[in-house]
Every structure is written in structure tokens, then in C-alpha cells.
Amino acid sequence: MKSQDIVILLKLASLQEQESSGFFDNHNWSSGREDPFSVRGLGASLGISKTEVSASLNRSLESGLAVKDRKLGRTKPSRRNLYNFTIYGLKFVFPAKPGAMMRGTPTAFSAPMLEGQLLSAGDDIYVWPDAEGRKRGQSVEPLFKSVPEAVQNDERLYEYLALIDAIRLGRQREANLAADRFEERLLKR
């Protein structure tokens, strides 16, 4: 398992939600536009090579974090398994440690969609290092290096990854609040 596997699965979950809300209703993928669920589409939107996306999907299928959609034939996240792994295992497999102060994209409790909803123990904010970032805070290495760019156009993916960082960085109370919010978003769509 690699950290980008989680990013790819969360992107697929976000795409499913966009699809169910009718976001893609006016898009015709056969007219030259890239299908966002394809290996090429996922790679382009996440800044991950097609080879890595393909290998990641295979690892996720083997581990049970993803399943094949029988109707559409594409890989989709096994939401319950992904939730359980994220809540109970991710912080041990991919621990997060605050680093130096720098500019970046706010994450964890500091992300715009979580600001004021989850309380952290200090006034410092956490950021994913990003030269284009507008906030200054303690750096946190994202699950994959392209995350700051990948979340620019996908608010749900941003929310998922910020919640995961809140779980990885937070004390028990904050981590539990973030886990509840993550469950509400991922499982009760």
C-alpha cells in the first residue's frame, strides 16, 4: 500500500458524489473529453502518472479497499473498508508530524470547510507546503506530493483529505470529531 492509494480512492469517492448530484449530466466523454473515472482522467486530475494510478487501483482491489462496479465495470472505493482503514490504521501507516513554518494550503482543522468546527489545542494552523499558498503555518507532508494542486478544483476531495489530516494530527477529542465528520461525509452520502 502506498499513500497515493488513499488519495486516488478519495478522488473516486468524490467523483461518485459529483456524478450522483448530476454534475456530469451534460458531459459526453466520447466527444474527446477525458472520462474523469479513467486511469488517464484520474492521473491528470491528481498529478499522478497513469502507470501509478493503474498500479494503485490494482493494490486497492487486492486489499479490499476498492471493488469493481459490476454495472459500469470501473473501480470504485469500498466505502466501509476505506472508512475503517482511515479511522483505525492510517495514522499508524502514514503518520503526520508537524514541521517548519511555511506557506501553503490550509489542512486539518485550518481548512476552510473545517474552520471553527474542529478545535485544535493551539493557535497555529497546519498547511500542506505550497509555493502558491496564501496561509502560513506548520507544514504537514500531504499523503501525496500533488495534493495541494489536486484539491484546487475538488472541494469534496479537499474536505476528505483535510479531515484525514485532522485524524492523523489531532488529539483524541479532535480526532474523534474529525472521524465523525468523515463518517458522515463518506458513508452517508
Apparent shape: globular
What amount of the residues lies in strands? 5-15%
Give the helix tally. Answer: 8
Q: Provide the residue-averaged pLDDT.
A: 88
Radius of gyration: 16 Å
> Which blocks of ≥5 consecutive residues have pLDDT under 50?
none
As for the number of domains, it is 2
Distance between the termini: 26 Å
H-E order: HHHEEHHEEEHHH
CATH class categorisation of the largest domain: Mainly Alpha
User: Which class best fits the helix and strand makeup?
Assistant: mainly alpha
CATH topology of the largest domain: Arc Repressor Mutant, subunit A
Note the quaternary state here.
single chain
Number of strands: 5
- CATH architecture annotation of the largest domain: Orthogonal Bundle
Assign a percent range to the helix content.
Answer: 40-55%
Major beta-sheet overview: 3 strands, mixed
Q: What would a concise description of this structure say?
A:
The protein has 189 residues and is mostly helical.
What this model shows, in words?
By secondary structure, this protein is mostly helical. It has 2 domains: 3-93, Arc Repressor Mutant, subunit A (Orthogonal Bundle); 101-187, no CATH class. Helices cover 47% and strands 12% of the residues. The protein contains 8 helices and 5 strands; from the N terminus they run αααββααβββααα. Strands 3, 4 and 5 form a 3-stranded mixed sheet that branches. β1 and β2 (75-77) form a beta hairpin. α1 packs across α7 and α4 (79-88) runs antiparallel to α8 (172-187). The longest helix has 18 residues, at 3-20. It is globular, with a radius of gyration of 16 Å. The model has no long low-confidence stretch (mean pLDDT 88).
